[in-house]
Design a protein that fits this description.
There is one protein chain. By secondary structure, the chain is of the alpha+beta class. The strands form two sheets. A five-stranded antiparallel β-sheet has the order 1-2-3-6-7. The chain has a two-stranded antiparallel ribbon with strand order 4-5. It has helices at 25-40, 129-142, 153-171; strands spanning 45-47, 57-60, 75-86, 89-93, 103-107, 110-116, 122-127. It binds 2-phenylethyl (2E)-3-(3,4-dihydroxyphenyl)prop-2-enoate (QAP) and cobalt (II) ion. The site of cobalt (II) ion (CO) has 5 residues, from helix 2. Cobalt (II) ion (CO) binds at residues 95-97, 137, 141.
């Protein structure tokens, strides 16, 4: 399946993604195609809406202690629901749909989620650290929310200005 990353300010990113009900070949094909595009663009997390599919699907591949990103650590998360959340942590986030921009964002430190895997089996996962941050970032995508929406008014203005400049420069290069 040929996929391309949808970039801000494309309105597609504002769509609310729909619950997955069929855990079929079509879903597997989408998941299988999302992984290489995430890896090739140096991502650690990707939601289906970022490749123009408005369904509640996300993948995560967090580097291990050695900094290695291995497919054994790939998480495929479908229809996630946060069931517990606790604490606060700040992390400098980025997003494949908002290239070249990074900002500190406050999120819950630890979360628990219920979700389904590619075969529809129900799972639970408790996460902290970068995994917890990444899951919250990707679940926001399912609601049409981007990390830049969480910036203060002044930082958001600064972002819009820098981003416009970046897009303009990219057009002429
Ligand atoms: C979401 O983000 C995330 O601007 C995943 O030029 C971010 O994979 C979760 C990326 C931070 C937790 C913490 C961004 C690649 C990748 C860029 C990503 C870029 C190239 C972002
Ligand atoms: Co993102």
């Amino acid at each position: 399946m040929q996929l391309t990353i949808v970039e801000y300010p494309n309105k597609k990113l504002r769509e609310i993604s729909k619950e997955v009900k069929s855990f079929d070949e079509k879903l597997h094909s989408l998941l299988d195609s999302m992984y290489p595009i995430m890896i090739n663009t140096n991502g650690i997390g990707l939601a289906a809406i970022q490749v123009a599919h408005a369904i509640r699907v996300l993948i995560l591949n967090i580097p291990d202690e050695e900094g290695e990103q291995t497919k054994e650590n790939l998480l495929e998360i479908i229809n996630p629901v946060i069931t517990q959340k606790d604490g606060e942590s700040v992390y400098q986030e980025g997003c494949l749909s908002v290239p070249k921009f990074y900002e500190d964002i406050t999120r819950y430190e630890t979360i628990s989620i219920n979700y389904q895997d590619r075969d529809g089996n129900t799972k639970t996962l408790e996460a902290d650290g970068l995994l917890s941050i990444a899951i919250q970032h990707e679940i926001d995508h399912l609601e049409g929310i981007l990390f830049i929406d969480k910036l203060s008014y002044s930082r958001r203005k600064k972002f819009e200005k820098e981003y416009k400049r970046m897009l303009k420069e990219r057009k002429y290069s």
